[in-house]
TrEMBL record:
Keywords for the protein's UniProt record, in alphabetical order: Activator, DNA-binding, Nucleus, Repeat, Transcription, Transcription regulation
GO cellular component, one term: nucleus
Protein name: Myb-related protein 123
InterPro entries membership: Homeodomain-like_sf, Myb_dom, Myb_TF_plants, SANT/Myb
One BP term from GO: regulation of DNA-templated transcription
Domain Myb-like: 40-92, 93-143
Annotated localization: Nucleus
UniProt cross-references to Pfam families, sorted A to Z: Myb_DNA-binding
MF term (GO), any: transcription cis-regulatory region binding
Region (Disordered): 146-194
Organism name: Dovyalis caffra
Domain HTH myb-type: 40-92, 93-147
Gene3D superfamilies noted in UniProt: Homeodomain-like
Main location: nucleus
Amino acid sequence: MGPISSYYESGTEICFAFTFLATHSLLKDREREMESKEAKPQVKKGLWRPEEDLILKTYVETHGEGNWSTVSKKSGLMRGGKSCRLRWKNYLRPNIKRGGMSQDEEDMIIRMHKLLGNRWSLIAGRLPGRTDNEVKNYWNTHLNKRCPSRKRTTMDSDPDGNQNNSKKASRSKRIRALNNSQPTEELEGKSQEKEEISAVSDAWIQHDAQSMNYYIESPMVPDISAAFVFDDEPFLAYWDSFVSFESLGCVNDW
DNA sequence: AAGGTGTACAACCGCCGATGT
DNA sequence: AACATCGGCGGTTGTACACCT
């Protein structure tokens, strides 16, 4: 995030100092809206303002995560529970890493995507401080271009030309250009993937598969020096990944 | 300088599974 | 068993800004 949001890192004192003013300001806003619109409780949408971030951050730090629907009510935020949860998870949570991906992170994303497909939360679990949303965005904007036969699904599914503005049309055009508009089902794409010009070499896959095999043999004792570090992911995810390999037909090659 | 277009990423939506009642 | 609620996920859209013509 840019300079607007970097204020979080300047310390909680400032957060608390601003929170009172922010809350007051928001409550005033709400009063005004209630007055003007006959008071049907509305859920605010769109970009989060810094004062909203401060309120949410302070609230969660005080009361803990969870019960997101009540967070929005009790904190005075006029956001949906989901929106609060997403904002916290993706931006306000401690240890979120901002800024560009390092080469290592980029390599990891490519490798993991090759193995797991669009399992963004699993991939993000291997990248400390990165969120699934960030990984997904990074893939779609940076890395997808290198693997042009990967699809972005339903963007092409409206052949009637219902795009009612030029920007949408432009977006669809761009995305079509990226994807070559060819269907690639996860399973039937097995053979196609082998023909793809990809940034991931077969040697990588071999290496990754071997790393995973290690965990399968000894899942309770993960080796911290291994390629994959499972941060905050439940153990089940190991098997989840394994199943994914199986479905891609990788397992037989080990 | 102004308008169009492209890029990056924040945020929303709909679906689904888990859990509680 | 049926329903409601919540949280998580992936796909998609919205928007700010940079760049181009």
